[in-house]
Model the fold of this input.
Amino acid sequence: MRFPDDVPTLTAGDVTLRAHHLDDVDAIVEQCTDPLSIEQTTVPLDYDREMAVHWVSESIPQTWADDREWLFAIESTHPDGARRFSGSLSLRDDGERRAEIAFGGHPAVRGRGVMTTAVGLLLDWGFDDRDLETVVWYAHVGNVASRRVAWKLGFTFGGTLRRWLVQRGVYRDGWTATLHRDDARLPVRPWSDAPVVDGERVRLRPLRESDAERVAESCSDPRTRQWIPALPEPYTADEGLRFIRNSWEMSMAGTPLWAVAARETDTLLGAVGVPRSGPAGLEIGYWAHPDARGRGVMTEAVGLLVRHAFLQRDEGGMGTHRLHISTAVGNAASRHVAEANGFVEFGVAREADELLDGSLVDLVELELVRSRWTALPGHQGPTSGTP
Done:
């Protein structure tokens, strides 16, 4: 295919896919030197204008001539009202009517829906014009923005590939997903982020990779290990990082997990989440960093999660009607957190959990339903504001 003559122009609303040209060079440099681009792509660390000129004038035309990668520039209206280069995206031919999709946006248009529209246009063209059967998507674990685009367009996620994506000589874990030409092109399940929920002293926020050391400290603590004996031994920062990345997967699968952080310093104080959900409601689990115990931190954090869970979905909450906590007999601190938030015992599961020494322990089962929670002192119901 001849570049740029044979490169089609594709348009939907404000977004246009077209051939790259030299007028894009300065904006390409801006995108490729942006910290997020550096973190999540394979762009060289010393990217400069000369590299951009070579890419536009030589590399891209050659990929079209070889018919091995169909690479487009994105054009859209920027916040200042001017229409100009907004990113790049491509389909890379994998043979046998299969292709990999890749995309990256200029920082000025991120979060505006430009990339979702652009990727949708390219998929239409790939399935219709290139007669593709299946498209695969990869992203570094943690690239939630890219994953959200794939989710919006109906990709089916296949899990995590350990040490699969190579970035500047480093093997990184990757997410993968596929889209077949006959798929509905709609999200397979609702997106469920772990949103930020603020309290007086603590904040519930998504876990970050920078929390790994504090997670390791918490999960290496003897008291934590007494009640959660299945934790790896030794529990290193790498184990903490694996836990954090798994928390992102959990959140996007509808069972969110939050970091409990100090509002003033953002220091990790513990974690709280919803490890399981079903028709009978949501189960809550939690643990605290050793230096956060005895200060009411986890009581406040669980209270924030209770309120978020009972808040209706159209108000930003989880819309559940019942919450459940299981705590081992003898774990007085955990039971205090539950009862301080209005949970009441409804049964005991005999010898239902194993402790660190291998002995079996009974589990106290506690529950809280929305109707009872709204009647508790200090609560005017789950619609009395937003988290």
Summary: Residues 49-66 form the longest helix (18 residues). The radius of gyration is 25 Å.
